[in-house]
Design a protein that fits this description.
Elements (H helix, E strand, L loop, with lengths): L6 H18 L8 H4 L13 H16 L5
Keywords: Membrane, Transmembrane, Transmembrane helix
Organism: marine sediment metagenome
Protein name: DUF4145 domain-containing protein
């Protein structure tokens, strides 16, 4: 709404929020292929690569939005 982040970035943040909420309401939670089915690139659609996805996405966000943090 404020135009600070792009729509596709908002969709990824919203996806993370929903995944976090799902995890918060289950006593034991595991990321599944179904949770990751819409990720791009395809290498991140495997649960074993979830940490790498999070790390790369975090680096991308910090680098891209660092111009707003001063």
């Amino acid at each position: 709404e404020l135009g600070i982040i792009e729509d596709n970035q908002y969709k990824v943040f919203d996806w993370f929020r929903k995944l976090r909420n799902k995890a918060a309401h289950q006593p034991i939670f595991h990321v599944t292929k179904n949770d990751l089915k819409n990720l791009s690139p395809k290498k991140f659609r495997e649960p074993k690569n979830f940490y790498n996805f999070c790390f790369e996405y975090l680096i991308l966000i910090v680098f891209y939005y660092s111009k707003f943090i001063q």
